[in-house]
Design goal:
- The structure is a single chain.
- This protein has about 250 residues and is an alpha/beta fold.
- It is about 30% helix and about 20% strand.
- It contains 8 helices and 12 strands.
- It has helices at about 10-20, 50-60, 75-90, 115-125, 140-145, 180-190, 205-215, 240-245; strands spanning about 1-5, 25-30, 45, 65-70, 90-95, 110-115, 130-135, 150-155, 170, 190-195, 215-220, 235.
- Strands 3-2-1-4-5-12 form a 6-stranded parallel β-sheet, sandwiched between helices. Strands 6-11-10-7-8-9 form a 6-stranded parallel β-sheet, sandwiched between helices.
- It starts with a strand and ends in a 7-residue tail after the last helix.
- The structure holds NADP nicotinamide-adenine-dinucleotide phosphate (NAP).
Length: about 250
Amino acid sequence: MTVLVLGGTSEARAVAQLLHQRGESFVSSLAGRVADPRLPVGPVRVGGFGGVEGLRAFLRSKKITAVVDATHPFAEQITRHAFWAAQCEAVRYLRLERPGWSESAGAERWHWVEDHTAAARLAAHLGARPMLTIGRRHLDHFVEPLREHAVLARVVDRPETTIPPSWRVLASRGPYSVDGERAIMAEHGADVVVTKDSGGSYTRPKLDVADELGIAVVVVRRTPPPWTDSDAVAILADPTAVLEHLARPWAVE
Ligand code: NAP
């Protein structure tokens, strides 16, 4: 078995750790988006594959027998590519995806929207001092609707987008604590938080603090996956379950 772990998440690093401990053959893959990535143990390759065809060629050349797609729930393109490339090459595909926050308790002040454009419009209406935690790639959707607002935009690496004078950019990386989030939100005077439905515990504390403060939260929904129910894709919620699943026999149907 040689496993390709598509990463860029804490879950992917945990899968690499487990594969390494069990002496399995594997390689992790990162997109190369952030300047100083947290690296998993074991072999790592960095950079895009060159679309579905490039990924297919990689699967063939490295004799990959299973793809563990542990990418972020909002890394939709690589998930689409990985699923199709694995299908075409008759390689096993497993999705490791942390559950979203849709079942959260105390979420009566949460507003669910379909995309970043809707999130920007709604945030402009709901508050004067929004805190944006949607990453840097989609910040440009927020610039016009929130140009006159006092925005705190938290990102891992500084954005290329031209930032309005009333905005402040905070470059930092999770995991975040409840106390830390409380301090940041109090210091900014945040009256609305904008987030993606990333799920998991790393970025959850801002939502707990928002609930505590009684302020609104705008949540961008996940988009549907590229597969249908009939594809019978194994969707697993934690790294140990991935290892258990890989240990089971698999045959192309
Ligand atoms: P994306 O939009 O789904 O993918 C864009 C392109 O980046 C892909 O077509 C692929 O290029 C390349 N790529 C993405 N992930 C890759 C990986 N793990 N290994 C090799 N190539 C990869 O991805 P994204 O949203 O920019 O996310 C990039 C990475 O950051 C992902 O690995 C993801 O897990 C991590 N991340 C994303 C978010 C988020 O909010 N989107 C948050 C935290 C971490 P080619 O077509 O050339 O193969």
